[in-house]
Structure formats: C-alpha cells, structure tokens
Amino acid sequence: MPDLGLEVLFKGKNMLRLLGGLGVALRISAISVLISLPLGILLGVLMTFKNPILKAILRVYLEIIRIMPQMVLLFLVYFGTTRAFGWDLPGETASIIVFVLWGTAEMSDLVRGALIAIPKHQYESSEALGMSRAQTYWYIIIPQTVRRLIPLSINLITRMIKTTSLVLMIGVVEVLKVSQQIIEANRMASPNAAFGIYLTVFMLYFLACWPINLLASCLEKKWK
Amino acid sequence: MAEPILTVDHLVKSYDGHTNILENVSFAVKPGEVIVVVGPSGCGKSTLLRCLNGLEPVQSGRVQLGGETIAYGGKNLQALRQRIGMVFQSYELFPHLTVLDNILLGPTKVQKRPKAEVQKEAEALLDRVGLLQKAKSYPRELSGGQKQRVAIVRALCMHPEILLFDEVTAALDPEMVREVLDVMLDLAREGKTMIIVTHEMQFARAVANRVLFLDGGRIVEEAAPAQFFDHPQTERAKKFLNTFTFDAVK
Asked: In what residue span(s) does the ABC transporter domain sit (chain B) (predicted)?
C-alpha cells in the first residue's frame, strides 16, 4: 500500500481548516448566485424586448464577459481597478463582483433562450382564450420557462462553485489555498500529503456539487 | 331572418404593406350556421380566421361580433375573444398542465366561474369526446387526434358564441382525422355556429351550410355545399376541386 499522505488530514486542525476553506468557496458562490440569478432573469427578459439599443448593449455585455476568461476578469477587478480607481477591494469582494458579472451574463442568456423557445402559438392560444398579457405570462409562459430553466441554472450554480477554485489567485484563502498551505507546511514530514489532501479537496467539491446535480436531474425527470 | 352573429366587412390584410393576403373579404354568419372555408394553400384562409379573432392587425375593413368591433389591440378584445372559441392546427395545448387543467384555465381564471361547476361540465364534455379517462394525463401522453379533441373541449368550455377551426386535422394521421371530424359533425348537429377552414372536402360537404371558396385573398365563390361541389361556377373553383379527384391509370 503506497503512502497516500492521508495522515496529514488528522494533524492539528487540518480537516477543520479545509472545511473552513470550502465554506469560503461556498459563501462566495452562494452570495454570487443569490445576486446573479434575479439580475440574470431581469436582463434575460429585457433581452427578449424589441428595443434594438437595449438589445445591443446587453449583447455586448454578454459577449465581453463570456469571451474573457474568469481569471482575467478576477485580475482586472482585483489588481486593475484597485490601482486605476484607488479603491480598496478585499479579495473576497472582488471575487463576488466578478462572479456576479459572469453569473448574471450566463443566466440572462439562459433566460433569453428559455423564453424564445416558447412557441408563438402558446401566446396566441392563451390570448384566444381571452387571457390578458399578464395572465398569459403568469399561467402559461412563466411556468414553462421555469421548467426549462431550473436544470440549466442548477448547472450554472455548480459551475460557479467549481470556478471559485480560481479565486486563490487573488489571495482569497479558500479550500484549494488551504490545501496548498497544508501541503507546504508538511513538505518534510509527509511528502505525499499532496495526494491525500487534493483527494480530500476532490471529495469536498464532489459532496458540494453532487446533491445539486441530483436535484437537477430529479426535476428534469419530473417535468420532462 | 336572424341577425348575423359575426359580420366581416371589406377586410383587407397585408403582412408587408404591398401584397394583400386578404382583399376585400365580406361575409356574415348567422346563428347556428356552419361556414366552411376552402381554397388552395396560401389563399388567406388561416389569415382570415386569425383576423376574426384579433390575432392579426388589418389594413382596413371591420369584423363585428354581435355589434361590437373586434380589432387587434382594440379595446374589449379580451372580453370579445372569450365569446369566440378557436382551435388551432397544432392543438396548442399547454404542455405543463393536465388535460383537465388545460380546459379549466380559461373558464376559472378568465371568466372567474366556480371551479366545481366548470369541472363538472369539462368532464361531461371530455366524456362526450371519449377522453374522460385522460383528464389527468398530460398533453404529451396523448395522440394528435386526442390532443385536438381536448383542444375542442377547451374552446367549448368557454361557452363561445362562435367557434373557429383552423385546419384542425391537417397535422393528423389519416386514421385520427375521423375522430376529430366526428366531434365537429356532432357540434354542427347540435346547432353550434362555426367557421371551419379545412382541406377535407367530403367533410366540408357534409358539415357546411355554406362554402366560401377563397383564392388570392378574395371570396371567389360562395354557395351551398351541394351547389359548390357538384356545380362550381368559376373556373378556379373547378380547377381546385379537380385536384382532389384522380383518374384511374389502369
């Protein structure tokens, strides 16, 4: 049996520290999700409006955010804007700003897609029943959109959780950074710690995202 | 002579402002009448029905239901539409609702009628079209013919004064066409006022009080079914009717 370096986990408060790091990652993603989902819904609805100027602005926003790697966005906000505008931005706040910008853009595109996927005839057959615009949205369009959207947005949430592993690059001490610290501190005593610790990180991410994915496939099945 | 329920006056409709889809279409529908609209594809039949329900803006002319004008985006449009039932070619049931909820939605949410009463009526109607056992099913679990019968029940449950059918069997497999047409024949027998756009000529002949032959956006011929199918007056109607018959090759 090779030495997997798992014993490091039980040294001192290492396991608790890792869980704390996961807590930071989850906090960043939870706050970002809570802000970006409603914003994304709002922008997504706006994107389906016929106003060409509004459409162009939102399109540009979406494309810029999507083309840019998240790491570049993090650097831009954390290192760039703090120099240029002279404000003081903690790493965690910078991460939340970037994740909200990114999550909002992705979410708005999902909402737009779900909305335009509703056939025109669904609106017409509701109107033919004498429904008002508001009733049409409330009883027909929104329920169908939500059913399409929930699996997609859950997928986005897990992507956001996974992408928090980048924020260590701007000095936020989340689960991956904590593991580096633990591995570094035990380099001499347990040179194999890298395997055990990263394996644990893998398990932690898995435990965080898997239930969410299960929920998504459950809902998908229910609403098929 | 009874007053007409629905009158169409010099209706002109164009999608692009240059070519008219409907050119000066006028006719009136009396209570209990069944009007069948036939004509080649693209002659404006479906557009005509959509204009009757205010789903399309028109360039000029007027549609009136019991003396009130129906106009796209016009006032009272929601109230007027409740008095017109429409059944579409592609059924357009609401996929997220059960058959029963599809039917109940309009009467309970739009007309605010008591749910228990509407449900009783809906179940009776479903029973009549042979689909009571499907009340709790979702549209995706139904065949095309079943969906279309549900769509008819959904329209009927609103107690419309007039029913519009827009090629309701065109998307169906041949063996399912009959079950839908039988429901419509039944409604005609009962004295429902209907405007039916269809390509089923035998059915048109059986169900119609009057046939409107539409070509190039105009009513080219308007006659009783026997007259129209046996002795069409215009060359265009003759040519159109000929496309439904085949000469033997052996």
From this structure: 6-241
Q: How far is CA B41 from the centre of its chain?
A: 16
- The answer, for B90 touching chain A at a CB cutoff of 8 Å, is yes
Question: What number is the ipTM of this complex?
Answer: 0.86
- Nearest in space to B106 (alpha carbons), one of B138, B73, B129, B83: B83
Question: Minimal CA–CA distance to B50: which of B19, B9, B21?
Answer: B21
CATH classification at residue A151: 1.10.3720.10
pLDDT digits (tens, 9 = 90+) for A156-186: 999 999 999 999 999 888 899 999 999 998 8
B67 to chain A, any CB pair closer than 8 A? The answer is no
Tell the CATH superfamily of the B6-92+162-242 domain: P-loop containing nucleotide triphosphate hydrolases (3.40.50.300)
Contacts with A124 from chain B: Cβ below 8 Å = 55, 88, 92
Is B84 within 8 Å of chain A by CB?
yes
Tokens encoding B21: 């889809």
CB contact under 8 A, A129 and B106: yes
